[in-house]
Amino acid sequence: MEKIDWTNLSFGYMPTDYNVRCYYRNGQWGEIEVSSSETINIHMAATCLHYGQEAFEGQKAFRCPDGKIRIFRMKDNAERLQSTCRGILMPEVPTDLFCRMVEKVVKLNERFIPPYESGASLYIRPLLIGTGAQVGVHPADEYLFLIFVTPVGPYFKGGFATNNYVIIREFDRAAPLGTGTYKVGGNYAASLRANKMAHDAGYSCEFYLDAKEKKYIDECGAANFFGIKNGKYITPKSSSILPSITNRSLQQLALDMGMEVECRQIPEEELETFEEAGACGTAAVISPIARIDDMENNKSYVISKDGKPGPVSTQLYNKFRNIQYGIEPDNHGWITVLD
Predict the structure, then answer these.
(1) What tens digit of pLDDT does each residue of 84-104 get?
(2) Which residue, of 5, 203, 217, 284, has the fewest CB within 10 Å?
(3) What backbone torsions phi and psi does residue 111 show, to the nearest 5 degrees?
C-alpha cells in the first residue's frame, strides 16, 4: 500500500482485495459471496455476450476529513439499475441487496480508499450480466450481479478545469426510443468511434446532437450537459439521455442556491447564449466547457472567455464535493456513512 501514489492516480483499474457476487437462479437471488478472483466463468452462449443483456452503474466512496467513509446516493444507483433491468428484461436487483453489497465491498477494500488530501476516491462498479445459455433472442434464466472497486484519480487529467468539445454528427450514441435512458454497455460501444475522432482531433470529448433531427443538444460524450444563463440551470430533455444522478443532484443544489431549473430541448444555436456550461457525471462531477466547435459548419461556441471555470459552476462543484466529503451538511439524505 505504501507504494501507491494517491495524488497521481489515473482514472483506470487497479486490483483490490475482494469483490462481491450474487447469483440469480430458479427465479430468486442467492446469498452474497465474497471473491478474490478478478475473473468470472461464464457459458459461451451467455446472453450478455450475444444479446447485450448487461448493465452497470458507477458510484464512489470517499475518505473524509473526519475519518469516516461516505458513499453518495447509493439507493439512487440501485433504482437506476432497476430501471435498466426493466428496459432489457433482467431481474431487478432489490435495493436492500444492492446496498448491502456496496457497503460490504467498500468495507472489505477499505485500505484502498484514498486519503482525503489526495483528491482521489474509491470507484464502485456494480455489474449485472445474463449468464444463462441462450441461442435464440430471449432473456436468460440465470444472472450474475457483482461489484468491484478500484481507487481512481480525476477523470480528466486537469481535474476541475475547462475542456474543449467537438460536435460529431457522423455517429449517434443512442436512438430516441432505444436504450439511451438505460446504463448498458452497448451505448458506450456506440460512442467509441466518435470519441476516438474527437481525441484524434485534439478535443477532450465528443458532443452529441439529437439522433433524429441533429438540431438539439443531447450529451457530452458519456456525460449530461448543462448550461448557465440569466440565473437559470438549463439541461436537455431527451428520450435518449441517461438520467444522471449527478445532474439531478446539481439541479437540486441550483434550486438551493436560488436559481431556476429548466429541463427542455436546447437548440444547438442556443450555445451562443450560455454564460457557463459543463458536462456532469459520476466520474468528473463537473467538467466545465471552454469551447464547443462545430467543424462541419465552421463555427465555434466559446463558453469560457478566459478559459477558466465560471463562478456558478465552481460554486456548484464545491458544494457538491463538500457534501460528498461531509464538510457541508447533507440536507437531502444523499449520503450513507459507513460505521
Answers:
(1) 999 999 999 999 999 999 999
(2) 5
(3) -70, -10
